[in-house]
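Write out the 3D structure for:
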Amino acid sequence: MKALVYGGAGHRSWVDVPEPSIKDPEDAIIRVDAVTICGTDLHILKGDVPEVETGRILGHEAVGTVLEVGSNVRDIAVGQRVLISCISACGRCRYCKEGRYGQCLGGGGWVLGHTIDGTQAERVRVPFADHSLHVLPDNVTNEDALMLADILPTSYEVGVLAGRTSPGDTMVVVGAGPIGLAALITARLFSPSCVIMVDPAQSRRDTAIAAGADHAVTTEEAEALVDSLTHGAGADVVVEAVGVPSSFELCTSLVKPGGHVANVGVHGEPATLHLETLWIKDVTITTGLVDTRTTPLLLRLLGEKLLDVSALCTHRFGIDEMQDAYDVFSRAGETGALKVALFSPESIG
């Protein structure tokens, strides 16, 4: 079969690799019908995630059809169409019992495309199938379901919920890429009075407004607008959705005393924490890896048409066009790419 293989910092290849097989009784083998690329994959290719070994198949987001299950799999059956979660969960360890699946001690957590082979392939082995796969309803398309593999639960849990978003809040999201837009979409479930998106790219600001943002401004305009809208108080919730030092530092300058900064972005280098100004402001700063505990809820909302993710996918490819998709996604500033979706010939859409 073909797969996207990491060849060390700056190197990737779409090559023939061995077919996956059941290694544990709780495994499932999935035919990948639709797959996407994450900003974290770009961080890996830059060399920012040293745990990823040369030769690893990348990817942690996909939708597919179950081809085979291990002898201990009870809730997943051959032939079902499933969402492959970016987080695997043993379901038994201390953290899994607390719903902190991202911190799984039993061999799960973020493993796909990280410490084991991932989803950017024609087929993939998924560990802990009963806890790591979600059967899809017929009225949810493969493309829409892809948005729930990572970015929707990530933005919702690590951004909106960790930031304690409440009705009437003024919310700022720094970064109008896929994660930032997903934060905007899921924040609307809590009726904030105002959501301000911050991004240097005009195309992404335009998309943010179309997706429901009240304002979309450049980095240079952000502080003045927040001051004007809040009469100098600052924003109740600020979500960092980029993962670079300057965006994190901007977030801490926009938050009000007693407010929350929820860092969602994946950082590859240190960011300065200005405690000399923050210590007196009662500011809460949170970080986190998604647990995907909210995926069933988000899937239900998607199926009931209470979430609209149509703005998130901008480019579509065949799965054998993986290298082209990476090229488009990695040049988002030029191409306007948000999420890209790649489909296998067997995909039902």
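The chain has a mean pLDDT of 96.
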